[in-house]
Amino acid sequence: MLLLHPHAQDERCRVPSQHRTFRVQRSGGGPGICWKLQGQNRRKAGYVDPGRCTGCGLCQEKCPSKVPSEFNFGLGQRKAIYTPFPQAVPNKPVIDRNHCLYFLKGRCRLCEKVCETHAIDFEQTDRLIEVDVGSIILATGYDPFDPRRKPELGYGRYPNVITGFELERLLSAAGPTRGVVEIGGKIPQSVVFLQCIGSRDKTVGHEYCSRVCCMYTAKHAHAIKEKIPGAKVTVFYIDIRAFGKGYEQFYERVQKEGVIYRKGSVSEVYREGEKLVVKAEDILLGEVVEEKTDLVVLAVGLEPRKDAFQVMRTFTIQADADGFFLEKHLKLDPVATSTDGVYIVGCCQGPKDTPDTVAQA
């Protein structure tokens, strides 16, 4: 959205939020004539008028209700009235009625009392909106793989087994720990990264490579070395796929910084005292190794969104064997679909990194 923000200021561009398309009708057509698409969208009530809201944040500061933050993967908290993420468009808060005390118990309304512009509107309701367009671009993204489907790795049982997405939020200066990497109040002195979790794995039905995991692990390993000088960082991998411009050079740089790469598959993660033990096969040494560590980071892959099938039915498009949206022709028409006027961009078509997604868009 940061890249698109200047274009969004054009008077011909509308950026409606909180919308979900549930029906698309086509009219017109014929030789040389483009389809006319009519989309029916349901606008979910946010109970905040974005036209009046100044984004001052006072309502969020005063709200007494706290719940785990989805954006921070549960590592931090948010309020019942909140801005979904820092670069949200529009960058205005919405009210989560499932946790708001007014909707649950009929009391509070503190956000309404402190709002000087009277932007809070508890009377808002969901609305149906119809839009006539010439084409539709689907950019619905992906879901991260849930490592609970690999119980032998200990995710969900041990608090110091986390995903790469969770580590990303810990490393962020705007994250729940303001960039301090700590688990249970302790800064880890040893970190083990496990690659291809949920990718290239027939046992979970994902035989494809997720393309981004090798390099985001290299980035995270580099950041750990910067933030925790002297920390031991080890990466267990199947293959390293550093395919992008400058990626191989960065991979070599990380190794020179002291990150240890061990080729082999991990069989289990278990606790031994205050440490975690990673049991794995080191293929190059030809032996089974047990690596003790303070923190295990799972490089989870990308998979189709849970609502992908519903989107396919709405727009009458097809999916490939892995569940990602299928293009008309991989080389000759790589963004068109089997439905005229409907196009696909980004990770809804298959795993991609940021440069490839932006270039395709």
Folded structure, characterized:
With 361 residues, the chain is of the alpha/beta class. Among the domains are: 58-114, no CATH class; 143-303, FAD/NAD(P)-binding domain, CATH 3.50.50. 19% of the residues lie in helices and 26% in strands. It is built from nine helices and 19 strands. It has helices at 5-8, 58-62, 101-105, 110-114, 164-171, 213-227, 247-256, 308-315, 354-360; strands spanning 19-28, 35-43, 66-68, 77-79, 81-82, 94-95, 127-133, 136-138, 143-144, 161-163, 190-197, 232-237, 260-263, 266-272, 275-282, 287-293, 295-300, 302-303, 342-344. The strands form seven sheets. A five-stranded parallel beta sheet has the order 10-17-11-12-13. A hairpin with a 6-residue loop joins strand 1 (19-28) and strand 2 (35-43). Helix 6 (213-227) packs parallel to helix 7 (247-256). The longest helix is centred in the middle third of the chain and has 15 residues, at 213-227. The termini are close together. 28% of the residues are buried.
The rounded distance between the terminal residues' Cα atoms is 12 Å
Neighbour order of strands in the largest sheet: 10-17-11-12-13
CATH architecture of the domain at 143-303: 3-Layer(bba) Sandwich
Q: Sheet bearing the most strands, described?
A: 5 strands, parallel
Task: Just give the CATH class of the domain at 143-303.
Answer: Alpha Beta
The CATH superfamily label of the domain at 143-303 reads: FAD/NAD(P)-binding domain
- Helix proportion: 10-25%
As for the CATH topology of the domain at 143-303, it is FAD/NAD(P)-binding domain
Structural classification: alpha/beta
Give start-end ranges of low-pLDDT stretches.
30-34
Count of alpha and pi helical runs: 9
Report the order of strands and helices.
HEEHEEEEHHEEEEHEHEHEEEEEEHEH
Strand content: 25-35%
C-alpha geometry: globular
Strand runs, count: 19
What number is the mean pLDDT? 91
**Radius of gyration over C-alpha positions, nearest whole angstrom:** 23 Å
